[in-house]
Amino acid sequence: MAGGGEFKRDQNYITTRITADGRDGFPVEPGRYRLIIARACPWANRAAIVRRLLGLEGVLSMGIAGPLHDERSWSFDLDPGGKDPVLGIERLQEAFFKRDPDYPRGITVPALVDIPTGQVVTNDFARITLDLGSEWAAHHRDGAPDLYPEKLRDEIEDVAGKVFTDLNNGVYKCGFATSQEAYDKAYRQLWDRLDWLEERLTTRRYLVGDSITEADVRLFPTLVRFDAVYHGHFKCNRHKLTEMPALWAYTRDLFQTPGFGDTIDFEQIKTHYYGVHRTVNPTGIVPQGPDPSGWLTPHGRDELGGRPFGDGTAPGPPPAGERVPPLV
């Protein structure tokens, strides 16, 4: 927490990279690494989406932590016996401590773990998705989209940078503010950015260019959680997402696109935010709503043109063990 009641995110991550040439000591190898996510976490959601879109399921396994954690770390309470079936650990913390017994920072997802040694290689969420798109290219599925085309990179980074500061992280700055002044500032920045996005997406189907890019991957996890948790739990309540026509249609468009909605489990999302953040929600009561059925209604965004996967194709269905519950 920064001065004046402002929330300040610790952005010091383990920056070791898994690369095609193995220059950091960790070369790309099918079956060697395990991506650890939690369905609840928006930062981990990005990695799950990119892995799906690029078709890396067969070469990069994925472990899923449960939605609740304590001060120690995320735990694998969804798995039989409460242990990750590949790593054999109960808590993600164990993999961080194998890397550094004195690891001093938060235990975060997503994390890439080296299976032979059991140690975390990196939890640098922003770099992970970019490296999956570039360093792992030899293992992409046929028809995998280019999520970070060179000619659009400057614009992607500009747009995504604004979105991160004011929205991805902005909802947390609202929710975890401890002074009225800090909350009011974050709230204004958040809604200025949402209004900017609403205007931008009124006339274009995707954030940058005419296909899905890294910019959309970074925006979607925040928007899809907005009404379920950020609107009420984090006091981001000027409007609901469903009351912003372009953003609601845009997010439904992505939700109905293979690789996006099939990574979302609203019950785990709500269980995490309302159950873990006891300073914000002391009772730990998890709300029943909102009704999720609207996510499957027609969005009409096809009229704006664009091709979701560019010159590529849609990914196939997720592996059986990774499927999320259907909306009811």
From TrEMBL:
<dbReference type="InterPro" id="IPR047047">
    <property type="entry name" value="GST_Omega-like_C"/>
</dbReference>
<feature type="site" description="Lowers pKa of active site Cys">
    <location>
        <position position="273"/>
    </location>
</feature>
<keyword id="KW-0808">Transferase</keyword>
<dbReference type="Pfam" id="PF13410">
    <property type="entry name" value="GST_C_2"/>
</dbReference>
<dbReference type="InterPro" id="IPR036282">
    <property type="entry name" value="Glutathione-S-Trfase_C_sf"/>
</dbReference>
<dbReference type="InterPro" id="IPR004045">
    <property type="entry name" value="Glutathione_S-Trfase_N"/>
</dbReference>
<feature type="site" description="Lowers pKa of active site Cys">
    <location>
        <position position="230"/>
    </location>
</feature>
<protein>
    <submittedName>
        <fullName>Glutathione S-transferase family protein</fullName>
    </submittedName>
</protein>
<dbReference type="GO" id="GO:0004364">
    <property type="term" value="F:glutathione transferase activity"/>
</dbReference>
<feature type="active site" description="Proton donor/acceptor">
    <location>
        <position position="172"/>
    </location>
</feature>
<dbReference type="InterPro" id="IPR010987">
    <property type="entry name" value="Glutathione-S-Trfase_C-like"/>
</dbReference>
<feature type="binding site">
    <location>
        <position position="74"/>
    </location>
    <ligand>
        <name>glutathione</name>
    </ligand>
</feature>
<feature type="domain" description="GST C-terminal">
    <location>
        <begin position="146"/>
        <end position="273"/>
    </location>
</feature>
<dbReference type="InterPro" id="IPR036249">
    <property type="entry name" value="Thioredoxin-like_sf"/>
</dbReference>
<feature type="active site" description="Nucleophile">
    <location>
        <position position="41"/>
    </location>
</feature>
<dbReference type="Pfam" id="PF13409">
    <property type="entry name" value="GST_N_2"/>
</dbReference>
<dbReference type="InterPro" id="IPR016639">
    <property type="entry name" value="GST_Omega/GSH"/>
</dbReference>
<dbReference type="GO" id="GO:0005737">
    <property type="term" value="C:cytoplasm"/>
</dbReference>
<feature type="region of interest" description="Disordered">
    <location>
        <begin position="285"/>
        <end position="328"/>
    </location>
</feature>
<dbReference type="InterPro" id="IPR040079">
    <property type="entry name" value="Glutathione_S-Trfase"/>
</dbReference>
